[in-house]
Amino acid sequence: YVGWFALVAALHVLLPGAVREGTMLRDGTRLTYKLNGLGVMVASLALLLAAHYRGAIDLVWAADNALPLLGASVAFSYVLSLYLYARSFAPGAMLAEGGNTGNVLYDFFIGRELNPRVGAFDLKEFCELYPGLIGWVVLNTAYALKEHRDFGAVGAPTVLVYLFQLLYVADALWFEPAILSTMDITTDGFGFMLAFGDLAWVPFTYSVQCAFLSYAPRSLSTAATVGILALKVVGYSFFRGANSQKDAFRRDPNGPASRHLKYINTERGTRLIVSGYWGIARHVNYTGDLMMGLAWSLPCGSILENPFVYFYPLYFLGLLLHREQRDEEACRKKYGRDWDKYCALVKYRFVPYVY
Question: Residue 15 burial (CB < 10 Å; 0-12/13-18/19+)?
Fold first, then answer.
């Protein structure tokens, strides 16, 4: 596992990438970030597959030893978190407002330092997108190779799941600059919560569908395949379309991509979109995310037959419902009466006429 982390870090440093500024920090400064996640993913997959087919490594080993690798990733997360906690006491370190309570266990878990760096290498942004997300794709690749080794072919369900999740990761890396304005980067400290989530939780829990299919391949009818593809396409259009529409509107409300959108002005001087994707539901991007997650699990069979492979959409449903309620509360405090006006125009939270 340490070798994998080192490989991805080396590729991040050595490969060219765009340089972007982050949001303004409390002290009025902005950090710069090197962004080359998509290139690192392509390069790492190419290197590993070339080594596999040349006999230098056996990539299926990762699938056969997923549990020990999971243990190693958890141990690595603890060691990294201890380092992060210790270095947060260095003079001049900017601390996260929520991670400097004086409670050692809480601060260790949440993270004390806001943007820990080694030189220009930003540890938090790197761990958020590189070793875990790309490692997820590598694990899926290993599971697909295992299925081919053990059963002589890679079935259509595995192909669907693999491509769906590859698209999800590639999308996150293509739109890497968007992470610079998220709470994970701008507000939260880097502690065990993020380290464990990025390095252990994401790659090893999100790959359970390919893991299951590598041990128990299935077949799909044409109708089922078409239905699952349709669910994925619609979910992705909601997810990416809504997020891109919001980003374009924030950048230039009068630009060609945004001028057709209807909105209401708020007393804060901002605008809330009430048409396009955002006229469908107040959290339509979450709806799309859930649809995509369901499309990952359906190729594995019904939830009654294989409940384990539905862990991700069920877990994500709970997570997004909590996040949606948190967002609603925050927006009501932020916008006051304007939020009531907005809710009267966009009545539903996730699904029109349902919720």
Answer: middle
**Residue 34's beta-bridge partner residues?**
19
Residue 300 per-residue DSSP state: G
Kindly give, in sequence order, each residue whose CB lies less than 8 Å from that of residue 78, ignoring residues fewer than 6 positions away.
192
Q: Per the confidence metrics, is the pTM higher than 0.85?
A: yes
CA-based R_g, the chain, Å: 22
As a whole number of angstroms, the distance between CA 236 and CA 244 comes to: 12
How would residue 331 be classed by pLDDT, with cut points 50, 70 and 90?
Answer: confident
% pLDDT > 90, the chain: 64
**Residue tagged 């490594």 (tokens):** 57
Q: What is the DSSP string of 53-112?
A: HTTS--THHHHHTHHHHHHHHHHHHHHHHHHHHHHTTSTTPPBPGGG-SS-HHHHHHH-S
Compute the distance between CA of residue 158 and CA of residue 249 in angstroms, rounded to an integer: 37
Helices marked H in the chain — which ranges? 2-14, 37-53, 60-64, 66-87, 104-110, 123-129, 131-151, 156-174, 183-186, 192-196, 202-205, 208-215, 222-251, 284-297, 311-335, 337-345
55 token code pair: 């006999």
